[in-house]
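Dear colleagues,

As part of the handover before I leave the project, I'm documenting each prediction I ran so the next person doesn't have to rerun anything. This entry is a single chain, and its sequence is reproduced below.
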Amino acid sequence: MDSKILIITFSDNADHQDISFGIFESLYKTKKYDVWIMGIDTPKVPIMYTQHTYLVDCPRRPGIEKKTFDLKTLGKIIRWINREKFDVIFFETLHVWNLPIMMRCHKNTKIFQMIHDLIPHKGDKQEKSVHLMNKAVCRLADYIVLCNEKYVSKVTEIYGVPQERVRFVDMWRRFPRYTEPHYSRRALFFGRMNPYKGVDNLLEIAKKCPEIQFDVVGRVDPQVQELVDELKKLPNVMINNGYVTDGEMAEAFIKADWIVLPYNSATQSGVVIDGYRYGRPCIAFNVGAIAEQVCEGVSGYLIPEGNNVAFADRLREAVCMSEDEYKKMSQNAYEYGVKKYSAEGAIDRFVKVIS
């Protein structure tokens, strides 16, 4: 492939930075692709600095803030992109600056926009803004890229994008070496606690499993603060709702045996992949496209949506596995993740999507 490719993420989220820089590094190291990366100038993840690494000062969130109107910096970015004459621009995340770049850098350039939440989560405070942003990029981009197959037809149904302009690719992440189990019998709930994340379900499940230690790590949305306050009262629940460093995140996954996702709704989940990165299988409600991410009985277990009794029963059975049984499942989860979601293994499918 002779195309000149620019991958862009203006996200200050470590997961999205890892996705973007991970595929950039994998492509760059092959020396077969003319690939470039653009990201924020204060990355939270390790990055490979090269002559093709372009870091910028930009708004940290995909919303409206003072820096959003820094037209001088935005103009400089647009002029640089036009001067470099890229054949392909791949936006990994939504951001307000994507829109002017799409409008001003579209000549002779194919624009790809990845959408992680095609259907905004009901009750989330950003529900309306995510829908409006999705609508805007669906009009401006040449191709929309989804990380699950289930919702491919929904892009046409909701946003009117012709099917020939919709692509699917499995997500990818950088994978560390396999991490040996701790056999801790602990369950981890990780990520920002929003209404759709099923904090109400987590509370009920934790009450049904008093013998299991639950580690709950993530920022709290004010809408679920009362539920979190109830969780804090349980002796088998430890909550960390402060800022979590990469090292603390890794420690939380390594200490756990099981990753729990009692979500009320979802598209796909990066937490599932994070579990695989550390060899930790998951137990999840079968909502959204999570079934595409979990190999039943191999990398984890799927529970009928909303059945907290079945979820608690499965979790109790899981923590009672022998060490040999659990280690085998841990290794299976890691190997399944590497095969399906590693950045190194994503090169061919990424190139196929943008070709």
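Residues 59 and 67 are 5 Å apart (CA to CA). The first strand starts at residue 4 and ends at 8.

All the best with the project,
I.
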